[in-house]
Design a protein that fits this description.
By secondary structure, the chain is α+β, with helices and mostly antiparallel strands. It has 5 helices and 10 strands; from the N terminus they run ββββαββββββαααα. The strands form 2 sheets. An 8-stranded mixed β-sheet has the order 2-1-9-10-5-6-7-8. A hairpin with an 8-residue loop joins β3 and β4. α3 runs parallel beside α5.
């Protein structure tokens, strides 16, 4: 069943854009300031804000029946939004009951009258669909690697500071600073090498290498703390 005037969701890149079929206007997600002065211009960004307009919103069918809530968006390897994750458990379910999540292709989703619609769906049909289960944390989501990258950035700044200090020093003081710079660079390189090793590791090995990244990062943090300021 096609709802007249409804608009189909399309996604390009990391932006979820909804085109308004048959209308002259376009949904505006926000603006991006192009300068830093009071006379700066603003670029209108067409599309829909996932946070403000989609996630957490109730999804209905064409009859107005509540199907669930929009919980998550899945971005595929081509950087396109491919699926909407809907929590179909709803407030009518028993307290403590496990949630039932399903994945719906975004091409099936429509917007009409401010509502998110799956026109032909019903709760019973959705409840019978296989549950969607989020995958475990992957290497691209590793908080250990994120912190390690922050440590590498701090090491670069610390090395630059030590180099400036060394340029204005002489004798034993300069020699000591140069030793500390060399040591910091070695620790920084060790972290970067482990992160590269983790990136190249296969699915069965990357978590073991992640632990090595954490240890190398801890050594680098300690070296940064002990560096003169």
């Amino acid at each position: 069943m096609q709802v007249p005037g409804a608009c189909h969701i399309a996604a390009l890149g990391m932006v979820l854009a909804l085109s308004l079929a048959g209308t002259a206007g376009a949904q505006v997600a926000g603006v991006r300031r192009l300068g830093a002065t009071t006379t700066e211009t603003e670029q209108v960004i067409a599309g829909w804000s996932a946070k403000q307009s989609i996630l957490g919103r109730t999804v209905y069918n064409a009859a107005g029946d509540r199907l669930g809530k929009a919980l998550d968006l899945i971005v595929d390897t081509d950087k396109r939004v491919s699926f909407l994750i809907i929590d179909t458990s709803g407030p009518v379910d028993l307290v403590g009951a496990s949630r039932h999540l399903i994945a719906v292709p975004v091409a099936q989703l429509q917007v009409h009258g401010g509502r998110l619609l799956l026109p032909d769906a019903d709760r019973q049909a959705l409840a019978s669909q296989p549950a969607f289960v989020h995958a475990p944390v992957t290497r691209t989501q590793s908080s250990i690697v994120e912190r390690a990258q922050q440590d590498v950035d701090r090491a670069r700044k610390t090395i630059a500071q030590l180099e400036r200090m060394s340029a204005h020093s002489s004798g034993d003081a300069r020699a000591n600073l140069e030793r500390q710079i060399l040591s910091l660079r070695q620790d920084q390189r060790a972290v970067e090498d482990k992160m590269a090793e983790m990136e190249a590791a296969d699915a069965t090995q990357w978590q073991a290498v992640e632990a090595e990244v954490g240890r190398a990062s801890a050594r680098l943090r300690n070296a940064i703390r002990n560096a003169p300021t």
